[in-house]
Amino acid sequence: MVSQTVELLKNEIPLEQESVVVAEDTVHGLVLVDIINGFCTVGAGNLAPRESNRQISGMIDESARLARLFCEKKLPVMVFLDSHHPNKPEDPYPPHCIIGSDESNLVPALRWLENEGNVTIRRKDCFDGFVGSIEEDGSNVFVDWVKKNKITTLVVIGVCTDICVLDFVCSTISAKNRGFLEPLENVVVYSRACATFDVPLEVATNIKGALAHPQEFMHHMGLYMAKERGAKIANEVLFDAAKNV
Ligand SMILES: [Zn+2]
Questions:
Q1: What range(s) does the Isochorismatase-like domain occupy (predicted)?
Q2: CA of residue 164 to ligand 1 center, whole Å
């Protein structure tokens, strides 16, 4: 049920969304952010949902559908997987997605991506996939991927809308604005294939140190803040102008 607070928020900062067309004459790249068991599969770990969640299951369905279309067209796809060394915690969060555990692997509906030739998989140990793509020598796997594939439009999906998706979008747009990501022109966040987690205030107040994180509210804020940086927010992605995906 959508609370009165969320209705108020959506009235105060309405979010205009648009259709985005994947045209044949430009290269669109798809970026999947952390659609992994540790964040999306019920009971899979400290940061996994405790019970099934409509926003998260809808995000997985839309992600799988879109990823399949990108793969059929052999368009470039990049997959970020949150993966932490056991001795390097990520404050303020409890241990999660330890390297080698199934928490840090793609959800079952997306596991097939590991075998696709057009897919680049990047394990990262921080929120921001752009920063997580930096190698020890200073090169950046994501920047190289954009340039090598001559990507002009990036479609970003995944979790969490207001954390790892937003951080990645902010860094990418800053880098684009500085001229580091040519020929990239557009960064699109596809809202129906994004999700975040739910910790209502009444739950957070009973857990020491926990921050309230009402799902609908934070999802909306994440999209809104991405738009503030210049991202397009899409509520549908169309292939070839005619085929609604
Ligand atoms: Zn993490």
A1: 30-201
A2: 9
